[in-house]
Amino acid sequence: MAWDFQTEPEYQAKLDWARDFVREEIWPLETVFSELSQDQLDRVYAPLQERVKEQGLWAAHLDPELGGQGYGQVKLGLLHEILGTSPFAPNAFGCQAPDSGNSEILALAGTPEQKERWLEPLLAGDIKSAFSMTEPNAGADPTLLQTTAVRDGDAWVINGHKWFSSNASIADVLIVMAVTDPDARPHQRASMFIVPADTPGVNILRDVATMEHPQEEFGKLGGHAEILYEDVRVPADALLGAEGAGFLIAQHRLGPGRIHHCMRWLGVSSRAFDMLCERATYRYAFGSVLAEKQTVQNWIADSAAQMQAARLMTLHAAWRMDTEGAAAARTDISMIKFFGAQVLHDVIDRAVQLHGSLGYSTDLPLEAMYRFARAARRYDGPAEVHRLAVARLGLLGSAPPADEVPTEHVPTRRAAAREKVAEILETVTANDCWTPRASAPSPRRRPAS
Ligand SMILES: Cc1cc2nc3c(=O)[nH]c(=O)nc-3n(C[C@H](O)[C@H](O)[C@H](O)COP(=O)(O)OP(=O)(O)OC[C@H]3O[C@@H](n4cnc5c(N)ncnc54)[C@H](O)[C@@H]3O)c2cc1C
Fold first, then answer.
1. Same domain, 147 and 197
2. Residue 365 sits in which domain range?
3. What gap in Å lies between CA 331 and CA 393, rounded to an integer?
4. CATH number of the domain encompassing residue 331
5. What is the CATH number of the domain that holds 165?
6. Most C-beta atoms within 10 A of its C-beta, which of 130, 134, 172, 290?
7. Nearest C-alpha to atom 16 of ligand 1 is from which residue?
8. Which atom of ligand 1 is nearest to the CA of 212?
9. Of 240, 260, 276, which residue sits at a domain end?
10. What pairs with residue 203 in β-bridges?
11. Phi/psi at 138 (5° precision)
């Protein structure tokens, strides 16, 4: 029997340290972020990152030989739950998206030279990266990508239009997905390229203002860039992995990344949940504090149950990935991706509601959490697409029943059961004068009064 919900004491001590550190050192940053330039922000982060490194929690997503800690997905998940409480925490721990996912694919598919040039400085926190796949006309279905990379002598020439490349406006390097063989099978058409951000022809047009960052602000952590790649010439060795392996590599990137997202969402949810409960204890209306209203109790109970369900599902997906591999955990990951995003939304929504006008105001972080939560149903695959994957698996073992009579149809099953036990029924009928239709009480049992 190997089911175990315990965290070993040494790792729990690290988690406890991380929780206090994030609460005391990172949460305050949220309130002054908008006053800091990217350069000032980097200077604020530098000593914090050193402290994380001293604790052995830096870049915990990678194996030790790559400069990480080799914790595996369950331990990482527990850490991400803590980091999720603040959008600024992952950066202090060297595991912020998209750098964490990019370092994973560089580790997976990079040549020794590519690792030395890009992975090592990325892990050290000396450079930043972006992942450039989505295009204005190709998102949920990336087989529709139009960006091309054409071989020209000993170089590749990239042309295309991307957007929502997170952090691209502050990145030193971009990992770009481009079609290298338009005639290949849909999932073998694209390849990945490592493109230094200062390569001529990489034109970063803007950071798209979003629900999360409504004011357009260029060149700052968390921006989502629109980019034109115009005759971008990179050497042949810029190809990451095999030609045509773009989708395969992307899948490796997305699996663990989604687990980390889901655990971070639980961190956000738990912070909103704490606010929900706090408000319920002191806000007085219609003769009692809000905690005494049944609707509010229902919200608290439902939130707690949903969060617990999402947490167990996510940790189970992480455990599966650790023990059986990424492919085995694929459907579990799709399940947590849409379920977790909905839980995140629901808990924040209740907290916003219970805080009345205050919840709608920027005096509390709830409205920012709410805007952040809306994107969770979209990035790394829209909820609808993940539901589709889960439903497909559910449908796999099902087939139409004979004559369209449901397999569980009780009258049909009853008739079959009578036939199966006909002999016994016959004996019973003969001895007790019992007929199947007459449901007389047993003579030995006293009828209910
Ligand atoms: C905050 C944020 C950060 C992001 N960061 C990055 C990044 O770093 N790099 C990058 O390359 N991309 C990034 N993206 C883009 C993200 O991956 C895409 O938004 C996502 O893949 C969906 O693509 P799309 O926006 O083009 O939507 P579309 O493909 O146009 O889909 C729109 C909607 O259509 C519906 N839909 C689609 N397919 C189906 C289906 N099969 N069944 C039912 N309904 C369906 C869904 O409701 C879906 O939301 C980011 C997006 C956000 C919001």
1. yes
2. 247-395
3. 8
4. 1.20.140.10
5. 2.40.110.10
6. 130
7. 379
8. 1
9. 240
10. 228
11. -150, 110
pLDDT at 50: 96
Q: How far is the CA of 377 from the centre of ligand 1 (A)?
A: 9
The one-character DSSP state at 24 is I
Q: Whose CA is nearest to atom 48 of ligand 1?
A: 382
- pLDDT recorded at residue 62: 80
Closest CA relative to residue 137, chosen from 145, 129, 125, 126: 145
List pocket residues of ligand 1, CB cut-off 6 Å: 98, 131-134, 139-140, 164-166, 224, 375, 378-379, 381-382, 384-385, 388
d(CA 145, ligand 1 centre) in Å? 13
Expressed in angstroms and rounded, the spacing between residue 139 Cα and the centre of ligand 1 is 5
pLDDT along the chain (449 residues), means of 10: 87 97 97 92 95 92 75 94 96 91 92 95 93 96 97 97 97 98 97 98 97 88 96 98 95 85 97 98 98 98 98 96 91 96 98 98 97 93 95 93 94 96 83 53 45
Q: What is the DSSP string of 264-285?
A: HHHHHHHHHHHHHHHHHHH-EE
pLDDT tens for 364-385 read 999 999 999 999 999 989 999 9
Which residue type, as a one-letter code, is found at position 348?
A: I
List the residue whose alpha carbon is closest to atom 41 of ligand 1: 385
pLDDT for 253 equals 77
Last residue of a domain, one of 107, 124, 141: 124
Q: Which residue has the tokens 């995140």?
A: 344
Task: Copy the structure tokens of residue 130.
Answer: 């972006």
Look at residue 236 in the predicted model and tell me its pLDDT: 97
Closest CA to 140 of 394, 390, 337, 386: 386
Ligand 1 center to 411 CA (angstroms): 47
Distance 142 CA to ligand 1 centre (A): 9
Same-domain check for residues 59 and 178: no
Overall domain count for the chain? 3
Q: What phi-psi label fits residue 241: left (phi over 0), alpha (psi between -120 and 50 degrees) or beta? A: left
